[in-house]
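hey so u asked for the seq, here:
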Amino acid sequence: MDRIGLALLVCLLWACNAKDRKTDTKPEQTTPGKTTDAAPVALNGRFAASQLPYQLTDTALLNNKDTASLPAVEVKPLVPDTTLQKIFGKTSGIRYTPLVKMGEKNKETYYLLKAGSGNKKAALLVVFDKTGNYGATLPFLVPDENASTSQVSLIDKSYAITKSITQRSASEVTGEGKEVLSYDAREKRFSLIMTDLLNDNPAVLVNPLDTFPKSNRLAGDYYLNKKNLVAVRDGRHPNQILVYIHTENSEGDCKGELKGEFLLTSTTTAVYRQGGDPCILSLTFAGNSVSIHEESGCGNYRGLDCPLGGKFTRKKEEKPKEPTKSTKRPKQAQ
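ran it, structure tokens below
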């Protein structure tokens, strides 16, 4: 009888150990699209890091022979169907290849990947925030079928994206076009900052804050000229204002640009100062004008020897015209 009891006890202990071993080998449950280091599963570890500025030409993209691929099932949710339809005329049967990634610790990470189907190729820029949440996708470079044009897309040190196109006849340049965009983390989208269409009128500066609320008494659009703007809008808190600054000389070869939250330090002054960013920039408001003063470390937001500065005048808001009242007396009923 004791032998039977001992045998049953051994069997019970073996079964418990087997259960523990099964539990220990079960894979850890993770949130789809994330890993413990806050990078998306489909992209993490597959991209070579690149320093800024980074440039890609249409020729380099078309000649890229990388054979590494990304799982389409993981990438497809990151690229809107409307984007794929516009580029490829379809949303399936597209191969994705990793190119490079760019980013800084505790800031957004930008992944550049190649999408291809048949002879059609495109470079797509996908951005994630510092916690690994998806932000937005931008068609970074889409080669055209015009043999007379060449395209270059660039990401500078301030993460502004410049997409340029040049048209040539033999060795002579006959036209140039440009778009400048930046990622708006609060809105989770890429905003067009400036556009200069190929073979069109001179560059038109686009205000990315144009539709934002402006109930603050300092809010408005302040201009030095058509290519130099300080746009002020309501901040997230009463002691903040949201500001977009674009400065540019007449030749267009000396530019500066910054967008961010400024802290109101008085009724007439505001300062840009962010943790981890050496740039300190102040604004001084007086009547219908605002003056910019670069205090230190704003080189990432402008060209060399192109300080952010100047005095800008507020553009007068145009009030909607009231309908004119007719002066004619109505006819009396007969």
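The radius of gyration is 28 Å. The helical segments are 2-24, 58-63, 72-75, 81-88.
lmk if thats what u needed
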